[in-house]
Amino acid sequence: MTKGQKNAACTLALYALVVVMLRFSSVEEWDTALLIALVVTPLALWMGWLRRRMNEQAAEWGRRRFRPWPEERRR
Asked: Where would you find the membrane-spanning parts of this chain (predicted)?
């Protein structure tokens, strides 16, 4: 399975999960749940991407830090 196919499958699975959760956790009808999931799914994917990117940048910033942390300077 290529990376694009894997991403598409994960996106579809997330969409289906959101639709089912919205349909059975509240009094939403199927059409309303489908429409809300169209908004929620890209938002959830973007939030996951943003979290991953921030963690990568934080790790990179930690590697580039040239001064020791204050706790390490006291030793």
From this structure: 7-26, 32-50
CA distance 67 to 63: 11
Residues 6+ apart with CB under 8 A from 32: 22
The pTM of the full predicted model, rounded to 2 decimals, is 0.69
User: Is position 72 within any domain?
Assistant: no
Residue 14 in domain: yes
Range of the domain at 58: 3-65
Q: Is the dihedral of CA 23, 30, 7, 44 positive or negative?
A: negative
Question: 23 in a domain, yes or no?
Answer: yes
* Overall number of domains in the chain: 1
User: Which pLDDT tens digit goes with each residue over 33-56?
Assistant: 999 999 999 999 999 999 999 988
